[in-house]
Amino acid sequence: MAYTLQIGSIRCHIVDDGRQWVDGGGFFGLVPRVLWERVVQPDALNRIPSALRCLLIESDRGLILVDTAQGDKLSPKMRQRLSMEERNLRLVSDIRSVGFEPEDVDVVLLTHLHGDHCGGSTRWDSDDGSPGPVVPTFPRARYLVQRLELAAASFPNERTRGTYFPENWEPLQERGLLEVVDGDLDLASGVRTQVVPGHTESIQVVWVESGGESLLFLGDTCSWAVHMERLAWIPAYDILPMHSIEGKRNLRRAALRRDALLVFQHDDRVVVGRLEPAEEHRVRVVPVIQEGDDGP
């Protein structure tokens, strides 16, 4: 289900690529299950539901899509493992539900190149979704990726090899659609990126700011609302966990100053929230949109 937010003069749509079920320990790392299961109940296989949200921004420089989620190129075995539908197509359907087609997207900003964030960048060129030649899902778009992220994905190590899949970006390189950038970017008026190392060395968040209002798309710098409340709760996926803590601390301060709306990419319950101070210099996330709501 898509949710539309007006940030000053900029319209944003939170679009969805469905759900996948992943091991709870991945998202909560060293946190004992007896603590994190108070937030989300795992199934018999210790798996929890993970949302796959992306952000579509109507900017003065065209339509910007932040991340492309998992996409439709997964094998039947992988779909079964993740408990995903046989055919997903949720992201393109959600984009269409707010009045746009894949050909309308001008820029795809990839926060990083893990499969559940860039898998939808390409698709099989077949009418029935069967394996075939891989082509861009958004054929007119420029796809932007950080230089260090592309290097990490192109030369993975033993730990990261299972998270990077070349078929998600190499076809874009071959067609000259992949643009390598280095550092923070101004994408459009009121739309900018910020590199926040932690989950990967050069993962980036996206700020949308207009008319005194702010929205922060956190991506995997803070996957769940509780991760923003509890700085020490770091996913096992993060390759630089101490950087993750400091990155969240700084984003938390910035979000409080701006009273920003926070978009949580993987939280199965809280779609959008705001921070408010709590006791002993802590913060809590106040939900603004919860999964299943009609809107803000």
Spatial extent as radius of gyration? 18 Å
The helicity comes to 10-25%
| Whole-number tally of structural domains | 1
Strand content: 25-35%
- CATH homologous superfamily classification: Ribonuclease Z/Hydroxyacylglutathione hydrolase-like
Major sheet summary line:
7 strands, mixed
Give the SSE order as H and E letters.
EEHHEEHHEHEEEHHEEEEEHHEEE
Number of strands: 16
Shape: globular
Instruction: Please identify the structural class as seen in this structure.
Output: alpha+beta
The chain-level mean pLDDT equals 94
What does this structure look like?
A hairpin with a 5-residue loop joins strand 15 (270-277) and strand 16 (283-290). 22% of the residues lie in helices and 32% in strands. It has a single domain (3-290), classed as Ribonuclease Z/Hydroxyacylglutathione hydrolase-like (Metallo-beta-lactamase, Chain A), CATH 3.60.15.10. It is globular and about 55 Å long. It is an alpha+beta fold. The mean pLDDT is 94. It contains 9 helices and 16 strands.
Overview features:
296 residues; 16 strands; 7-stranded mixed β-sheet; single chain; alpha+beta; Metallo-beta-lactamase, Chain A
Task: Briefly summarize what is shown.
This protein has 296 residues and is α+β, with helices and mostly antiparallel strands. The chain has nine helices and 16 strands. It has one domain: 4-Layer Sandwich (Metallo-beta-lactamase, Chain A).
